[in-house]
Sequence to fold (254 residues):
Amino acid sequence: MDLGLNGKRAIVTGGTRGIGRAIAEALANDGCAVAVCARKADEVAQAVAAMRASCAGKVTGGAADVADAAALGAWITSAAAEMGGIDIVIANVSALSAAPGEESWRLALEVDMLGTLRTVEAAMPYLEQSDCASIVAISSTAALEAFGGARPYNALKAAVINYMSNLATQLAPKNIRANTVSPGTIYFDDGVWGKRKQEAPASYAAALAQNPMGRMGTPAEVAKAVAFIASPAASFITGANLVVDGGFTRRVQY
Fold:
């Protein structure tokens, strides 16, 4: 199926590794011009060089921290100027805050929730000029069930889903779509589950055993779901939360 992404322009925050990198690659290979950001300039440069060598679409990038509103806004302005606009926004960055204490909660608020808000608001003038504008925020199945205790990561990822759902209603008259994708247990070597496999193999094995498919997902599988819901092929889908978890969560989705 042609997703209609060829020639579209996308930004991906946290696009240098893991799920964000896979999303950037998927969009670029479907013909999008893609701009990625991350905090470390050297990692951005390495990721951009690798994607330029392997992807069909134009890839650019810059160093920006979503917790720094001025730097993030400047990067988005620069990316829009370089690409000639923005059609797709992927808000992917997470602080992965799981520790107790107010500082951990503030970090999750600053990065996961306010980072998403800042990304959306800085990109909004460009989305309003697009004829196929789409926003996708990356949440988590940890937002959907009691999982791992009272952690900032879970609570703020749930807030992201709520924000995107209400944003979808608000922006629908402008023909700007807003959706969320919630991955479950996604494995890559330097990710949460890759590290847990090395550092806490019993915890890793227990999580693996809970998945009906008998395996964890890959960043590429999440990226394909994101590419679809962000694309013109999903033009009548807004306010949705697409779960990509291999059946890991047991809730009934309404």
Observations:
- Residues 102-127 form the longest helix (26 residues).
- The mean pLDDT is 93.
